Amino acid sequence: MTASPFHHPNAALLQAAAAGQLSPAVSRIIDAHARLCSRCDAMMSKVEAVTATAFEDEAGDALAADALERALASLDAPSPREPALHDTLSALPQEVHDVVAPAQGKIAWYTGGPGLKILDLALPATAKGETFQVFRIEPGYGPPRHTHGGQEFTLVLTGAFKDETGVYKAGDIAIGDESVTHRPVAEPGEVCYALAVTTAPLKFKGPLGVLQRVLNFGRA
Description:
Layout: H1 11-18, H2 24-36, H3 38-56, H4 67-73, H5 94-103, E1 110-113, E2 116-120, E3 131-137, E4 146-148, E5 152-158, E6 160-163, E7 166-169, E8 173-176, E9 185-186, E10 192-198, E11 202-204, H6 206-215
Antiparallel strand pairs: 1-2, 2-3, 3-10, 4-11, 5-8, 5-10, 6-7, 6-9
Helix pairs in contact: 1-3, 2-3, 3-4
């Protein structure tokens, strides 16, 4: 599935989420973004409605081949964004709150580098090779420069970060794959909390990348 590092999932990814074709972790992060973005929420609702119509139309004519495309095209006009998350994790969308809340206080945060703390989240039936994590990034810091062995989905919960593809604020989602090489760095001001799902180990660049290859080390 093509990466779309432009603050929103693309139509194909929203369609897959609405159809239940994604892993539990990826589905949660896409659903959580939709709760914070009225346009993506509307697109997912439209896809669900079109899909339901297709299933219900057993005795009638089949939907036109371009029915879904036309339904999605009707949503091209921009719509107002929902309010961004507050500066605490207590305001997380329900899709992620259920897995983040139990982890706090039970699983220790660990250091991923200067100014970076990581909390691993447990999610039943997470696909093999996936990680589901919360990142706490101090302003001016971020994970090492890297590309991806699979896909990486990063939903900003509070604050903002900037990388080679743009600035991502609360509610925005960045999606990268092997075509994207970047180093996200938290913007000045508020601490950046982000929810991240990776479908395969990251591939680091520079000296850390050399060490990773020597040790076969794939964890951020």
